[in-house]
């Protein structure tokens, strides 16, 4: 999905009422990815990073310029998202743990019939946490994270896309263990527009198939351990993925809209960095947001949490606003009336028809 949202302000007070403070560890607040493809500098995440992650000199392939570009644009050394930052999706987390995390931890066990899946596809409506999960996987298993959108692969270096795919996998091996996350993978299959574009995207797709096929025969590190590269892909349109690619993405995990419990958890995660009034009824907000995606809910919380400031500056001149103290602006905790207003403004973005299409595809092609 493309609808990334940034962090709510860091340094704001932690939840004022104790009921907002359950859930994820405090040290992980405010580190949601920006989706910009740049390294997200979550401060405690840097502390978690192992030394030697940035082994720039490891790449010795034929395309140093391309490699440098990829290192700059798609390499995120510390995405800084933890499992606890992702609300709900317990089953998806379990599946990802088994399919990605464990093979990285015990490569000698995952051999032969137990070999890791070639590729893993996360599908579901937009804004449900697919990108977030991919980042959590990378953080939790301490792998280097390559965050690349298919649109980038298909268009950035016209005519050089295949080289770019090859270089990406070479680079991933050089930085192994690593996770390659390919967002919007469907866009590699349904190239519209000019025929030249179509041709180059066909070539980039065949190269991707070749690379994914070879991903488990990646040679060994100096200490004899296998170099593991995991391919994780995401799509909001799984039905657009053609058979050849679908077959390579052996494990297909459905990322659905959040249920009631997950919505409560999501609201709590979102409100971690602001002060919340005692009248805020999280259960009520969760009840009234059925059908909202995680992203929609984040927007509700962001809108609600900005309301106090809007009230404060209403009717004031620009100079008066400039001269207001920070304390004055942030004095009011987020209250239930702020949620009422936000709920009236922010609607659900995923249609029932879309959900039904995903569920149908899940019964046909999904992994349980
Ligand atoms: P997708 O890749 O599925 O389109 P993202 O992972 O980019 O969606 O999610 C977009 C934003 O929505 C996230 O940055 C986060 O703020 C919020 N969000 C969505 N799902 C969740 C979730 N399960 N837990 C926490 N936040 C979520």
Automatic annotation (TrEMBL):
Q: Which GO terms describe its cellular component?
A: cytoplasm; microtubule
Q: Which gene encodes it?
A: KATNA1
Signal peptide range in chain numbering: none
Reaction(s) catalysed (UniProt annotation): n ATP + n H2O + a microtubule = n ADP + n phosphate + (n+1) alpha/beta tubulin heterodimers
The Gene Ontology biological process terms listed for this entry are: microtubule severing
The entry assigns this protein to a family as follows: Belongs to the AAA ATPase family. Katanin p60 subunit A1 subfamily.
Task: State whether keyword tRNA-binding applies.
Answer: no
Q: Where does ATP bind?
A: 124-131
Q: What is this protein called?
A: Katanin p60 ATPase-containing subunit A1
Key words, A-Z: ATP-binding, Cytoplasm, Cytoskeleton, Isomerase, Microtubule, Nucleotide-binding
GO terms of molecular function: ATP binding; ATP hydrolysis activity; microtubule binding; microtubule severing ATPase activity
Domain (AAA+ ATPase) spans 116-259
Briefly, what is this protein's role? Severs microtubules in an ATP-dependent manner. Microtubule severing may promote rapid reorganization of cellular microtubule arrays.
Q: Where in the cell is it found?
A: Cytoplasm, Cytoskeleton
Comp. bias regions, Polar residues = 17-26
Native species: Gossypium stocksii
The EC code for this enzyme is 5.6.1.1
Task: Give the principal location in a single coarse category.
Answer: cytoplasm
């Amino acid at each position: 999905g493309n609808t990334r949202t940034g962090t709510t302000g860091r340094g704001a007070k932690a939840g004022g009422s104790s009921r907002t403070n359950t859930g994820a560890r405090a040290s992980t607040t405010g580190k949601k990815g920006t989706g910009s493809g740049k390294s997200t500098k979550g401060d405690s995440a840097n502390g978690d990073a192992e030394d030697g992650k940035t082994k720039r000199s490891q790449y010795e392939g034929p395309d140093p310029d391309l490699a440098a570009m990829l290192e700059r644009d798609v390499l995120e050394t510390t995405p800084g998202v933890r499992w606890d930052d992702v609300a709900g999706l317990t089953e998806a987390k379990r599946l990802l743990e088994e399919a990605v995390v464990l093979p990285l931890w015990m490569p000698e066990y995952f051999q032969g019939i137990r070999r890791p899946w070639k590729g893993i596809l996360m599908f579901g409506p937009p804004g449900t946490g697919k990108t977030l999960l991919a980042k959590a996987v990378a953080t939790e298993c301490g792998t280097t994270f390559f965050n690349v959108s298919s649109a980038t692969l298909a268009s950035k270096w016209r005519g050089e896309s295949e080289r770019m795919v090859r270089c990406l996998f070479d680079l991933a091996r050089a930085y192994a263990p690593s996770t390659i996350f390919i967002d919007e993978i469907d866009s590699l299959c349904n190239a519209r527009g000019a025929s030249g574009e179509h041709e180059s995207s066909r070539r980039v797709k065949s190269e991707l198939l070749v690379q994914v096929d070879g991903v488990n025969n990646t040679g060994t590190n100096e200490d004899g351990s296998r170099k593991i590269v995991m391919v994780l892909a995401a799509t909001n349109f799984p039905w657009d993925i053609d058979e050849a690619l679908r077959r390579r993405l052996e494990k297909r995990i459905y990322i659905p809209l959040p249920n009631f419990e997950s919505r409560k958890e999501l609201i709590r995660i979102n409100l971690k960095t602001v002060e919340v009034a005692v009248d805020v009824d999280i259960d009520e907000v969760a009840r009234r947001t059925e059908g909202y995606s995680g992203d929609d809910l984040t927007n509700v919380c962001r809108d609600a949490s900005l309301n106090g400031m809007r009230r404060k500056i209403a009717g004031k001149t620009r100079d008066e606003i400039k001269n207001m103290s920070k304390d004055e602006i942030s004095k009011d905790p987020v209250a239930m009336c702020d949620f009422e207003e936000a709920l009236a403004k922010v609607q659900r973005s995923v249609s029932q028809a879309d959900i039904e299409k995903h569920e149908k595809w899940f019964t046909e092609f999904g992994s349980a």
